[in-house]
Design goal:
263 residues; 7-stranded mixed beta sheet; two-stranded parallel sheet; globular; alpha/beta; 10 helices
Length: 263
């Protein structure tokens, strides 16, 4: 039966309001269903609580990345050359309505399937959005430099959105990747990524250009930002320690932190 008190949708709506989430907000959500406790209705109740809290004039965004579609050599898989060849030949292309998320969790995997949710077209770093400006947030997601100013992250920044860490670890804050494209030092090098796409009714491998994003110090940036500013709102949603952060202020702070601390 599990331990701990039961968590309802209405309780989460109350908790989100206490944290500072309100009608009309644009919120990018990083979540851990397990951390929220014994949620009646699981991810569905969490999603409905979020959507009722921001309302139809707001926007909910979640990362729905698909690392499993990367070239098999990317993460030191240990496959033989023959296995690599077979995998590359049979790797499916990205289908926004079909391809599952990878390592994102139960909440975004459920969210991306919901009627009215729009998922961006990037085959590796997609985002899904619900709300008044969901189409604007997700449209024209370029392959090259996929988390820059022209990405869904850039659109959320433009809309003065907020970051909601809903029981998620502080190093999972995807928004900080936006700062990496603005940093002045050369810590992050450019990188060529292999990706399989459909061209002229055929599935072929091609490449796109990006930077070699690095999130290893994102928890340190969070700690420094919380220490140096008053912007981080902390509270409990269900059973989960959660944080609400203005995206613009945190990204701008992160640029300075990266310039000072990344070599």
């Amino acid at each position: 039966m599990g331990e701990g008190k039961l968590v309802t949708k209405n309780q989460m709506i109350h908790d989100l309001g206490e944290l500072g989430v309100h009608q009309g907000m644009t919120v990018i959500v990083h979540s851990s269903l397990k951390s929220l406790g014994r949620v009646i209705g699981g991810p569905v109740s969490v999603i409905l609580a979020l959507e009722e809290t921001v309302g139809g004039d707001g926007n909910i965004v979640m990362p729905t990345q698909t690392e499993q579609l990367c070239d098999p050599t990317e993460y030191g898989s240990g496959y033989t050359e023959e296995e690599m060849k077979i995998i590359r030949e049979n790797m499916p292309t990205y289908h926004p309505d079909l391809t599952p998320t990878c390592y994102m969790g139960f909440i975004p995997e459920t969210f991306r399937k919901q009627k009215g949710v729009i998922r961006s077209s990037h085959p590796h770093t997609s985002f899904a959005a619900w709300g008044k400006q969901a189409k604007y947030i997700t449209e024209d997601h370029d392959f090259d430099f996929a988390l820059n100013e022209n990405s869904p992250l850039g659109r959320i920044y433009e809309l003065n959105g907020s970051i909601l860490l809903l029981g998620a670890p502080t190093d999972s804050n995807t928004s900080l990747h936006l700062a990496e494209y603005r940093q002045e030092n050369t810590f992050v090098k450019e990188k060529i990524w292999d990706v399989k796409v459909e061209k002229n009714h055929k599935e072929v491998w091609t490449t796109y250009q990006d930077i070699n994003n690095d999130s290893d110090d994102f928890d340190k940036i969070f700690d420094a930002f919380r220490k140096d500013t008053d912007y981080v709102k902390e509270g409990t949603v269900g059973e989960a320690r959660s944080y609400l952060i203005p995206m613009r202020e945190m990204v701008e702070y992160a640029v300075g932190w990266m310039n000072e601390n990344r070599e």
